[in-house]
Design a protein that fits this description.
The complex is a heterodimer of chains A (116) and B (110). With 116 residues, chain A is mainly β. Chain A has no helices and eleven strands. Helices cover 0% and strands 49% of the residues of chain A. In chain A, the strands form two sheets. In chain A, strands 2, 4, 5, 6, 9, 10 and 11 form a seven-stranded mixed β-sheet that branches. Chain A is globular. The N and C termini of chain A lie far apart (33 Å). Chain B is mainly beta and 110 residues long. In chain B, 0% of the residues lie in helices and 60% in strands. In chain B, strands 2, 4, 5, 9, 10 and 11 form a six-stranded mixed β-sheet that branches. Chain B has a five-stranded antiparallel β-sheet with strand order 1-3-8-7-6, with no helix packed on it. The chains are: A mainly beta (116), B mainly beta (110). At the A-B interface, strand 4, strand 5, strand 9 and strand 10 of A face strand 4, strand 5, strand 9 and strand 10 of B.
Chain lengths: 116, 110
């Protein structure tokens, strides 16, 4: 597709379960970003990938959160043993090159995660 | 205190009105971004600027680097402009990591 694709668009799960969120960036974009938007809060940075490497994981809130990227393309954000405070919209973005400040980030529509 | 502050938090206007949303930031930046988020979550990048002024259709964005302030203006507002408008900055300490304001919810009534 032409844009950043995220799946699922909505996910409802029980507290304590593991969830996987998927992001398919724009073809050819080497940089990929995960953000979280909690109710009433602004967007917060989680992790940045350049290719398959993650030089900045500083925004991951706990060791229950992990992410990987394979083939320089699709990325998966995994949350283990989910807690109610993990409920949020998880947004993925990609850009042509991460190290260039003049490269805009293109956002997906997000995954709305609800923990019961 | 957040590094990026927006005002107002909420704004209601009548169709046709001129709208201004303000953004102030407290860190050195290499770029400032204005983003639009419609209900349902999708985010669209409207502008990326590091100096001066940019115009796209009815939207105008300005930045004053010395005062660490930016404004987003919408002329002849329309109900389809109703959305959350988010200001974000690329701090000098990072080429890629965006720091976001909390957004301004704009509602334009017909």
């Amino acid at each position: 597709g032409a844009g950043v694709s995220q799946s699922p668009s909505n996910k409802v799960t029980e507290k304590g379960k593991d969830v996987e969120l998927r992001c398919d960036p724009i073809s050819g974009h080497t940089a990929l970003y995960w953000y979280r938007q909690s109710l009433g809060q602004g967007l917060e940075f989680l992790i940045y990938f350049q290719g398959n490497s993650a030089p900045d994981k500083s925004g991951l809130p706990s060791d229950r959160f992990s992410a990987e990227r394979t083939g320089g393309s699709v990325s998966t954000l995994t949350i283990q043993r989910t807690q109610q405070e993990d409920s949020a919209v998880y947004l993925c973005a990609s850009s042509l090159v991460g190290s260039r400040v003049d490269q805009p980030q293109h956002f997906g529509d997000g995954t709305r995660l609800s923990i019961l | 205190k957040n590094e990026v502050e927006q005002s107002p938090q909420n704004l209601t206007a009548q169709e046709g009105e001129f709208i201004t949303i303000n953004c102030s930031y407290s860190v050195g930046i290499s770029a400032l971004h204005w983003l639009q988020q419609h209900p349902g979550g999708g985010i669209v990048s409207l502008f990326m600027l590091s100096s001066g002024k940019k115009k796209h259709g009815r939207l105008i964005a300005t930045i004053n680097i010395q005062e660490k302030h930016s404004s987003l203006h919408i002329t002849a507002s329309h109900p389809r402009d109703s959305a959350v408008y988010i200001c974000a900055v690329t701090p000098l300490r990072s080429n890629y990591k965006l720091t976001f304001g909390k957004g301004t919810l704009l509602t334009v009534n017909p």
